[in-house]
Write a structure and sequence with these properties.
The chain is an alpha/beta fold and about 260 residues long. The protein contains nine helices and ten strands. It has an eight-stranded parallel beta barrel with strand order 1-2-3-4-5-6-7-10, surrounded by five helices. A hairpin with a 2-residue loop joins strand 8 and strand 9. About 45% of the residues are buried. The mean pLDDT is about 95.
């Protein structure tokens, strides 16, 4: 299993030095790069043997995936541009998370919202296919959004659209916060191409901590029991120490679990 970290391009060289297998960049930040900044990032990545595997954090709330401001043409235009930038950086996959883009007013019809999200996923996957990029749907917990808040909902969309480049990222943080078991995952694993993991504390996401090794071990063991041997990325939103210190500890923890010695 290859280990990566969701972080900014400013931490890329530190990540390489620590021994990570890949970096995962925030799509919405890549979209804000100038062409010169994008080229600098491309050159930086090309100069080291650590690829950019893909993007998380697809967009912010300015591009609604559902709701009264939903616009399918804007969704397609955004997808076309993020895929162009992703191709420049050599990415393999794009995760479709983005909680701020999946919040809708209480009075908005939930069935309509679900259909809009499905259409958003379809046109985004169509644009990704033009560049040989996987689109990975991600269920997000009801604590952060209103649309597709259970793993089975995301799986139903993937199965229903039946597109060869449309699969899933499984996020253990969102699963557990949604009340789902981190070990009851066999039903979805044939469609999973990427994993996210983190330390959840104080309603935020952090790098991994030694005291939670039993939880991480259960998550990884459940995925491995299904034959999964692809990519896993630590996805922190916050930090309490310098990047090198926290990312280094996270890598040591995951390597010890994957090596069978904890």
């Amino acid at each position: 299993m290859r280990i990566g970290c969701c972080t900014g391009i400013e931490n890329y060289e530190a990540l390489c030095d620590l021994g990570y297998d890949f970096i995962e960049l925030a799509g919405m930040k890549v979209m804000k790069m100038s062409e010169a900044e994008l080229e600098d990032a491309r050159k930086l990545i090309a100069g080291r043997n650590v690829p950019c595997n893909g993007f998380n954090a697809y967009c912010d709330g300015a591009l609604p995936m559902a709701g009264p401001e939903f616009d399918l043409q804007k969704a397609r235009d955004y997808a076309a541009e993020i895929c162009r930038r992703g191709k420049t950086l050599g990415i393999r996959a794009i995760g479709l998370g983005a909680p701020l883009a999946r919040r809708i007013p209480k009075e908005f019809d939930r069935a309509t919202a679900a259909g809009q999200y499905r259409d958003f996923a379809r046109v985004t996957a169509e644009e990704c296919a033009k560049h040989g990029i996987l689109l990975l749907l991600e269920a997000l917990s009801p604590h952060v959004c209103d649309v597709v808040t259970q793993t089975r909902e995301a799986l139903e969309i993937v199965k229903g659209l039946d597109m060869p480049n449309l699969r899933m990222v499984l996020d253990f943080h969102h699963m557990t916060r949604a009340g789902e078991s981190e070990t009851d995952i066999a039903y979805v694993m044939p469609y999973v191409k990427h994993l996210h993991i983190d330390e959840t504390a104080e309603n935020d996401r952090y790098h991994l901590k030694a005291e939670s090794i039993p939880f991480y071990t259960r998550c990884i063991a459940a995925a491995r029991a299904c034959g999964y041997d692809d990519t896993i990325a630590i996805e922190p939103n916050a930090s309490k120490a310098p990047f090198r210190e926290e990312a280094g500890e996270s890598l040591r923890i995951l390597r010890s679990i994957l090596g069978g010695s904890v």
